[in-house]
């Protein structure tokens, strides 16, 4: 089998409500799709999502597309995708950084190879440890009453009982009060966690985390800037409530440094920030070797990107903190024929060849920024 072509599409999908984060408010989520075709016509599809252009991570959707088309694709045409790990190594020699672009390309190779073998992609990673995983919902409407209503509806419908609040924007004291009101309203029916998205300094973190810990919050995600591992280490040793690394944890080298310096109590895995599924599995191994529990993060992918993450997370034996693979529920529309299923507070891991999702090419054409003439 040989790779014949690799095409990249930037797709803007509307969300059901504004989603407020410290660095950006999402009303239209931008995902990058790639389609790799073999010479005998098998297609492998991949997706990575970005948040607010380049405001969350360095790579914008436009850069991901350009890097793949100009620098990665020429390395792959004519090569056998079955050796996807060797091809990823070759890409790494010629392209530094650009982890989202690399993750997208690796996903297309894995989807293609798994479809060729007619197996789910998770079989290429040791098979499933889980057929479903707990899934958190992010309360990010920006309004306390609306967030409480949303949380209660999630509990009643058995959709989610883990709630994450994005609290990096605005007055830290008001944000902490907002979180504690929500925790009081939910009580023991659900877990409340916060994501600060690097917005606090260490002094702010000290009094805010103390109040959040007293208020019954279960997890504090990335309070400090991504470079501040020393500060994260101090916070982790000071508080009982676990501190989780997200933006500070990308590559396997960063995972090693955080584990060695105990600069977090929990790892938030994300396939694109590690540079792909294989690298994410290695980050998980570092966590396992260090006794650090894991959480399956999201970049707010649509159904395909969610399936990619879900399949990989399903191969990791211990996912103590569950996942936040709620992405498809935030979109008004989707780019696959079949949809991700949620049941009894969990995401059902997709089955079927590849990542188990069938791309709806008409939807890709509809939402793509470019004229997609080559999709048929
Ligand atoms: Mg986060």
From TrEMBL:
<keyword id="KW-0058">Aromatic hydrocarbons catabolism</keyword>
<dbReference type="GO" id="GO:0018849">
    <property type="term" value="F:muconate cycloisomerase activity"/>
</dbReference>
<dbReference type="InterPro" id="IPR029065">
    <property type="entry name" value="Enolase_C-like"/>
</dbReference>
<dbReference type="InterPro" id="IPR036849">
    <property type="entry name" value="Enolase-like_C_sf"/>
</dbReference>
<keyword id="KW-0464">Manganese</keyword>
<dbReference type="InterPro" id="IPR013341">
    <property type="entry name" value="Mandelate_racemase_N_dom"/>
</dbReference>
<keyword id="KW-0479">Metal-binding</keyword>
<dbReference type="GO" id="GO:0018850">
    <property type="term" value="F:chloromuconate cycloisomerase activity"/>
</dbReference>
<dbReference type="GO" id="GO:0016854">
    <property type="term" value="F:racemase and epimerase activity"/>
</dbReference>
<dbReference type="Pfam" id="PF13378">
    <property type="entry name" value="MR_MLE_C"/>
</dbReference>
<comment type="similarity">
    <text>Belongs to the mandelate racemase/muconate lactonizing enzyme family.</text>
</comment>
<dbReference type="Pfam" id="PF02746">
    <property type="entry name" value="MR_MLE_N"/>
</dbReference>
<dbReference type="GO" id="GO:0030145">
    <property type="term" value="F:manganese ion binding"/>
</dbReference>
<dbReference type="InterPro" id="IPR013342">
    <property type="entry name" value="Mandelate_racemase_C"/>
</dbReference>
<keyword id="KW-0413">Isomerase</keyword>
<dbReference type="InterPro" id="IPR013370">
    <property type="entry name" value="Chloromuconate_cycloisomerase"/>
</dbReference>
<dbReference type="InterPro" id="IPR029017">
    <property type="entry name" value="Enolase-like_N"/>
</dbReference>
<protein>
    <submittedName>
        <fullName>Muconate cycloisomerase</fullName>
    </submittedName>
</protein>
<comment type="pathway">
    <text>Aromatic compound metabolism.</text>
</comment>
